[in-house]
Structure formats: structure tokens, C-alpha cells
Write a structure and sequence with these properties.
globular
Amino acid sequence: MLRMSACAQPATALVQCTGPDPAIASVTFATYPSLAALYSKYQEIVGNLTGKSFGSVENRHVCGSLAPDPTAESTWNHSDQYFTKYSVAQLASGRPSTDVAMGRVFCEQTQTGSEYIVWTQDSGRLLGYATGTASHEQVWNWFVAVHHNITFPGQPGMAGMRTSPSTAASAGSTVPG
């Protein structure tokens, strides 16, 4: 779901793709030198998209295959669980286990029909930013397929994750992916 022929690497820590899938107009992947730098950029992008301070959307509610109303923001993990319990500051510190919080995800549908999904992945200090041209459900399904398959050498990915993290049951609200 990510045709590499649609992608270019203009810088060492940056990959940009145009029309990598029928549901996606563009996607950018960037890595950062630290979790603090990653989350600073994430908050900046989400703030720019919403026109609000990040604090007003942080942990609002979870993204999912159903359209958000119209904005959602929370954590995610490879077990398809999304929590509104953890803050950006906690993830930037690196303290939460990747079993319960692999990163954050923001999604928004606009009045003009665009869909945005911005996410972080703590392993690899990755930020992904996709603009969708299809329904929220199609854009969400693309995101789920792609972000679950991004791995970094020596870092956790789908292959090593449990179906249900042991600490997830008491960690907060969840929505099936």
C-alpha cells in the first residue's frame, strides 16, 4: 500500500511520496534525533492543521475506521489499541512501554473533504504525515496497513508484539483498529 516508485528521498532523514496509493495524495516520513524533537514537530504540525494549541486536541478521543468528529488524537500501539491516558510529555520522556504506547496518532477530516493522519513511532523516532483524498475509512485502512509495517533494526515492530499487552487492560480506553 506504499508504492516505492511514488517516493523520493530528498534528504537522509526524509522520504516524500506523491500518490503512493489511490486513497493517499501524499505522505511524508521523517526521522528526528530525539524523542523531544519528534514530539515538538508533531505538536507543531497538529497545531497548524487544527489552528489551535496542541493541548486543546491532545487525548481528545481516538482515531479509528469510523470518521472522527472531526478531530481525534491519542496514543497507539501495535496491538491496535489506542489510549487517551498518556501525554505527549510522557512519550517524549520514553517512559511508557512500547507495548502500551508505540507513538501518537492524530486524524482529522476537513470540510473540503481532505483527510489528514499524522503519527509518531517512538522506535526510530519517526513522524508520518499523510493527506488523504478518499473517505476517512479508506485513509485510515491505508494508515493501519502501512504504519504496522514500518520497522527499524533492533526496534520493536509487529512481529514481536503480543496480541494483548498485559498492561493494556487497565491502561485506558481502547478502540479496535
